[in-house]
Design brief:
Blueprint: H1 4-11, H2 25-29, H3 37-46, E1 48-49, E2 55-60, E3 63-68, H4 69-76, H5 85-90
Antiparallel strand pairs: 1-2, 2-3
Length: 102
Amino acid sequence: MIDLEILGNVVGADIRQYFTYLHGLPELLALPGTYYEQWVREFYASVWVSLDHSYIHYALAGSDYRVTAQRAREVLGLRAYSTRIHQLCYGNFEPPSTSSWW
């Protein structure tokens, strides 16, 4: 659970604006729960976003999972936008090819 007010006090600035651009993100970060470092490591070591952004694929505890973008938006209460975060950060620069990994 992340308390944005406490975090803002630690860094000495109002940071809520940086988390409110995505509907529901502050609420998602504030959910109580347990942080499992091994799960986070496994997820990020295996996550792959499809080139058309229609799904992500990842592995946890030796099992493979695929989550569609539509299902993720439903679960998280997010809306679909035509603008991609990659475009905002990198313009039209294509991400590196990862086809050799699979």
